Write the structure tokens for this entry.
Amino acid sequence: MKKVAILGSTGSIGTQALEVIEKHGMQVTALAANSNAEKLAEQAKKYHPEAVCIYDPSKVEQLETLLKGERIEVLTGMDGLCEIASNESHDILLNSVVGMVGLLPTLKSIEAGKDIALANKETLVAGGSLVMKNAAEKGVKIYPVDSEHSAIFQSLQGNEGNKIRKIILTASGGPFFGKKKADLANVRAADALKHPNWDMGNKITIDSSTLMNKGLEFIEAKWLFDLDPSQIEIVVHRQSVLHSAVEYEDYAVIGQMGVPDMKIPIQYALLYPQRVECPTHPLSLTDYGTLTFEKPDYDTFDCLRCAIDAITEGGLRPAIVNGANEEAVWHFLRDEIGFLEIGELVRAAMEAVPGGAVTCYEDVLAADQAARAFVRESISKK
């Protein structure tokens, strides 16, 4: 019986992972959430983990009250996340928290020698060189959970030693596909939260609307598959059926297709290399009829170009871009800035905040905080 710990259990990935875990009789050893004490307590009572963590310390008392009488340890904050991540009781950690907060628990999990099913983009975006170096030294396996990276991972199976010419990273195009900057000037958060294909949390959905989500995945792909940025091509595929593909040296292209349901890549990461029945539904190509592929609009969606420029330059630039984006999205969700200002602030931060090499976690944290401070100061001057 595989034992799983989940960071981000009350979010979209976490709740779907619990469906997969329940279907296949796996054991939940620990659960962690940001601030939803009610849902975390409900999950804890159902799956009986050894420990739970509520990241928001103001919710600890509420969670303890909800779990009164249960023999479950209650943790909080970054220390709690790291304790769960490095605990000996699980076989694999599913890290599905959102944001830079996921990096340190990932590093602690690697230090403890635990394999990771990784859905936290920022872990590799901000600290990719550290994460991959440490994982290699510890012999830790990192299984991608994002549908695109899972598709690439699946398309690589059986092709060890064959040279990759490039990977094709597909993008849905988000809710504003086909729009130009003039069309997006008055977009508010409620408009940007309407994704055409995927049900995700607010931050990721906004990132999808700006195409920053694809920019972050571009950076992740570089680290996960040890590629040069020039080997990654982004293609807009509105139907989200071909989840991504690999082109080999002989120009053969191998891809992974399926319905847009995150339970498929979640299950593959947790049960690799097994393929067993998944709690979803099969793909019917005739129901779709037509699949389309187009080039992304780099001029309209500044965030995508910023992310690619950042990883091309390397060092701390991706951490700066990521931190600036997180901060800008936070303000956009509160209607404090406009949609187009997200990309403008990210670009300005990337150009203004000093970069440098990544030597340790503290370097990444300092760059992240400097980028956030730059965005806050820029907004305050408006």
